Amino acid sequence: xxxxxxxxxxxxxxxxxxxxxxxxxxxxxxxxxxxxxxxxxxxxxxxxxxxxxxxxxxxxxxxxxxxxxxxxxxxxxxxxxxxxxxxxxxxxxxxxxxxxxxxxxxxxxxxxxxxxxxxxxxxxxxxxxxxxxxxxxxxxxxxxxxxxxxxxxxxxxxxxxxxxxxxxxxxxxxxxxxxxxxxxxxxxxxxxxxxxxxxxxxxxxxxxxxxxxxxxxxxxxxxxxxxxxxxxxxxxxxxxxxxxxxxxxxxxxxxxxxxxxxxxxxxxxxxxxxxxxxxxxxxxxxxxxxxxxxxxxxxxxxxxxxxxxxxxxxxxxxxxxxxxxxxxxxxxxxxxxxxxxxxxxxxxxxxxxxxxxxxxxxxxxxxxxxxxxxxxxxxxxxxxxxxxxxxxxxxxxxxxxxxxxxxxxxxxxxxxxxxxxxxxxxxx
Amino acid sequence: xxxxxxxxxxxxxxxxxxxxxxxxxxxxxxxxxxxxxxxxxxxxxxxxxxxxxxxxxxxxxxxxxxxxxxxxxxxxxxxxxxxxxxxxxxxxxxxxxxxxxxxxxxxxxxxxxxxxxxxxxxxxxxxxxxxxxxxxxxxxxxxxxxxxxxxxxxxxxxxxxxxxxxxxxxxxxxxxxxxxxxxxxxxxxxxxxxxxxxxxxxxxxxxxxxxxxxxxxxxxxxxxxxxxxxxxxxxxxxxxxxxxxxxxxxxxxxxxxxxxxxxxxxxxxxxxxxxxxxxxxxxxxxxxxxxxxxxxxxxxxxxxxxxxxxxxxxxxxxxxxxxxxxxxxxxxxxxx
Amino acid sequence: xxxxxxxxxxxxxxxxxxxxxxxxxxxxxxxxxxxxxxxxxxxxxxxxxxxxxxxxxxxxxxxxxxxxxxxxxxxxxxxxxxxxxxxxxxxxxxxxxxxxxxxxxxxxxxxxxxxxxxxxxxxxxxxxxxxxxxxxxxxxxxxxxxxxxxxxxxxxxxxxxxxxxxxxxxxxxxxxxxxxxxxxxxxxxxxxxxxxxxxxxxxxxxxxxxxxxxxxxxxxxxxxxxxxxxxxxxxx
Lengths: 428, 336, 236
What we know:
The structure holds three protein chains of three kinds. By secondary structure, chain A is mainly alpha-helical. Chain A has helices at about 1-20, 25-50, 60-75, 80-110, 115-140, 160-180, 185-205, 205-210, 225-230, 230-240, 245-275, 280-290, 290-295, 300-325, 335-350, 355-385, 390-400, 405-420. Chain A has two domains: about 1-75 and about 155-420, ABC transporter involved in vitamin B12 uptake, BtuC, CATH 1.10.3470; about 75-150. Chain A is built from 18 helices and no strands. Chain A is globular, with a radius of gyration of 24 Å. Chain B has one domain. Chain B is globular. The N and C termini of chain B lie far apart (about 55 Å). By secondary structure, chain C is an alpha/beta fold. Chain C has helices at about 45-50, 75-80, 95-105, 115-120, 125-130, 140-150, 170-185, 195-200, 220-225, 225-235; strands at about 5-15, 20-30, 35, 60-65, 65-70, 80-85, 155-160, 190, 205-210, 215-220. In chain C, strand 1 and strand 2 (about 20-30) form a beta hairpin. Chains in contact: A-B, B-C.
């Protein structure tokens, strides 16, 4: 217990140190993303630590959370529904209906079912495209430089967080239904696939997410810096404390975000801990430790795995929505598996798989490292290459510093896995 | 005549590219499936192993080019390939020594080895980016075309041209040779058979006196050769970019799973299944349809089933189908 | 009295902290058949694995031809002339019968074709099926492949862990006949058997193990005649 408190204190000291040596603005920026990382790490930890499920589609679930922000919080684009929105929705309904019909036929039909299913799918696809394509063209033609999509419901952005969780949960349900119950690597491969496809959709379906044109200016749950700077009350307050109003406004905004995020983190943490120590959590751990024995005792292993996979993915989706809210924009091309999926895994493994506090600590610590390793690597290389003459070799080495952190993260993961596989705060 | 034109258009835009791509996927999937069968884990570092091998080969190619050595009409990279394979093999054996061996000795769960391969992937990815950067690199030299579209049109008098790039031809030939060598090795040589025995039943292989260390070493050697060859051929055919190799991971795994993880022949079949589906589904069939179909039935759109951005969805959809209906794959690999 | 050909002398050991073997002794003479029988959980298979070096011993010794081999690992014991046929997973299912035999001879550098012919003479059905994957054969044929694979090393001692588990009575009789035939060529045979009655009938020496200790030891005929053994272990 002492040790854990010490580890968290050290972590806090790192952020204070960053604030003192660099700026509080930087420290808070890192901390905000640290909280989001910690929530994602909690989601992955539920899947891996409680149930031993290997999900490498974290990026996809986070991106679905991001999509939820666009769908919930942006105002609807005028005329888009009339122009083609209903067609698109109708087409999607046809697609789903075709899939449902195919699955019913597969289950009911005694013979020729492969043929029947194939013809339903092919026919369904062409009908879908026939309805879908004109709708998309019409929607994307509306004011394409700034809109060209359906927009959303114009609801408060905070509602997007649970919505992101629901979107991610739906995707997790579909993928879990397919790949759970087979060997563990298959789930990994399948989640890798769903992440790539989610991303392909976000990048290409402009009617939905504006694709690579990005959705910018998403509504924020906290005040804008400019508004604060214009408010005389705030300026007086800041100058009263001897702060520069511009700097103070940006710090206050970040603190507001931090407050919101901290509430979510605390909630997720509370629920995760309660769940882990409930009979349900004991059953999960029993299944993780010996699937065969748990199965023999009448536990439905696959159903329990599906459950935890959906819950964990939903948590990742919520964090994804929070991240997009923090950025106030959705940039599909920024979703990179190396950063989203594998970094979260490093957090869980380093923090301590199976332990929620460990995952949280790992989230903060690794995110801090991820941000700080690059400048540290760059300055290290600067020092090392200082004696070298200027030229191609030196320039190349300095350019390479940007990639040092991938290497560092990989080495950290390997070292922890090898020498301290239970992580900083081991699970019980 | 129209039928011939349609056939040529099909060959030019679908068959030839898909065969070349399929050969590249098959080589990649062979590596994944061998590691799975013998070392018993899914190696997520395989895409980056291909990138690493290709990078080594490119560096040697640049060296050769600067000394004025070339392979005439063939790409210089083919001369550099053996060196690339050797360096990659050394690197893989070092990784095995530093990372995987420990987990093998302690008989860790396969998922832990898979996790370790994630770490290795990070490291390799960092090394590749550090050494050669993230830019697009085109290192194909030598003759551009085996058959040019114009020559083909002139020679046959057809409207459609058939172009076969020399890189495509080389891909197919090199891949065929590599696969033939591999199957000969696995089925005819004592070491190859001992590898199959080890993959089949590790305990019994030990009881028969098969040296596990040697089997593992030879496996990494072969994997290095396959991955480097696949990486170089893909780089020659398209271009070298560190990130694209990561994206090859899904089609490669899909190929291996479709064929049946652990089954070499399945990996080859799976590679071509994935490649043909991917190219077929994302190709705009309008041109082919224009020749075969009567005027009034012709499609007005491009007749493209999915945009090329969704080609990853094709591998994924096939993967899901296989997982749902036949998890052991076409050739009954291992599913446990 | 000189040492037997192979002896596991007062073996003590087990997998975890608890001992499964409590000082039991198993031995076999050259060209003879020794059979280990006993109730479930008596440590029969464990004793066998201990003799083959698949289980670390806390006490006791394994000697082959008078030489102490207690510390050798299984692979080195194979090189010393011991062969082991596990109870399950004892063939390479995806490989052909012929390849299974070749793998048995993996350590041999000389021409092993005569040994393959010998195995085919012993089990003629395998010659007809030599190109079939071993995993597609019937249960009895698979056992033949497993025994054949073990014979390929030209062992001095052949150890069989329940060779007749899961095969029909007819096949079992046939397999026992072959085992006698193998012993006649001078190979010592040590086996664990569930079918105690049939096994003791062909045994030169029988060991009845109970809770990791020798309860009864004697020639096969003696044990068969012993009323207590009959009552307790052979079902009357």
